[in-house]
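Sync notes, pocket subgroup
Present: LS, DG
LS reminded everyone that the earlier model was apo-only. Rerun requested with aspartic acid included. Inputs:
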Amino acid sequence: MSDLASDPAPDDGSQKTGGLGGLVRRYWLDVTLWKRILLGLMLGTVLGLVIGEQAMGIKWVGDLFVRLIRMIVTPLVFFSIVSGIAGMGDVKRLGSIGAKTLVMYLALTAVAVSVGLSLGVLFQPGAGMDFVGTTPQVLGAAPTLGEYLMSIVPLNPFAALNEGNIPAIIFFAILIGLGILIIGEPAAPAARLFQIGSDIMLVLVRVIMELAPFGVFALVAWVMGTSGPSTFVHVFLLAVALVLGCAIQTLIVHGGVIRLIARLPVVPFFRDIADAVIVAFSTSSSAAVLPVAMRVAEKNLGVSHTVASTTLPLGTTLSMDGTALYVALLAVFSAQAFGVDMTAAQYLMVGLVCVVVAVGTAPVPSASLFMLAAVLQVIGLSAEQTALVVGFILPFDRILDMTRTVPNATSDLVVAVTVARWEGELDEASYRAKPVE
Ligand code: ASP
């Protein structure tokens, strides 16, 4: 899949660059998106601090942007989860390698979710947070696991789509995906249709993200103007928890799998994957990492072509440990911010939904931000509250995205090495040797 939400293509010189259009192109459109978002963040911070509460006046610009995100959530979640599950058809064709790969990916994602939830509870990044202008939702007694499970089985899936009932939509999407898998070859056109649908949604995501600098500018001015710099404390705690979580997932969990399950030394692994880690960090896109990961796996780590070309493309789209960890962390953050006391059943459901959401998230920058609504509904947050969280976190998302994309990439390489080891498809001498430049 192409990096659909990535930055615009550089000017190839084929277009005239004179006049106002040329200036806009040169000084705006050709500037990488994250730099423009950063500019919005900085200018918004300054404006908010200078004009204070008056920043409420431009909040509508940010609200409009968040509305666009909310508009895309239902179709994006539906299409990406159906196509994610239908894409597992490749697993069936791959037999034992596919099955082992899938089980490992899902298990690692589940561990990542637990790390995210635990750090959220430990760091309490959302405690004491004050969302100005929020109408707290009247939360009844928390539903039991049984009640919750009952509510995700829609009586009418089309009504669920209509209402934007995300847990029910996810459930229905999983069933459609499984249906496509069971029918197999005759359902290939349907699988393709959903894949195209998901690609179209990603094009829309890219267009919406072009407006991010303006949305971020207005939102951050509003946050700073009304809550002041204390907001940074919460963002900082969130960032620390995320960095720590990603470090735990990469170094301890992934390193542990290499040492204890694949029974290989860990130092060559981390030394040899440096290129892939750098690309993940700098592009925030697992899709962009794939070609580098293929090369790293085959040339540096000694994974056979068969295993690399099976496990890595699957992992790019299905396995996102950093993303899973991040959405789990954000769910706990949001619960704290809105004073929701999560029950054990809710933790379990949030965990399950985070795994599914990570499977369905596209391997492009900021993708999981668009999937967050799916998780927040589980803890009973309203669409307005979800919008507040998205608006709050969005200005800072790029740097968090860079961080979480690293474990997204390393999990794929860990699984490639481990499966290759099990299948006798790992050249151990090449794994241990330093990579040739
Ligand atoms: N940027 C992530 C990736 O490409 C996805 C996300 O968490 O937004 O892996």
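DG: Residues 1-15, 135-139 have pLDDT under 50 and may be disordered.
LS: Residues 33-432 form a domain with the Proton glutamate symport protein fold (CATH 1.10.3860.10).
Action: DG to write up.
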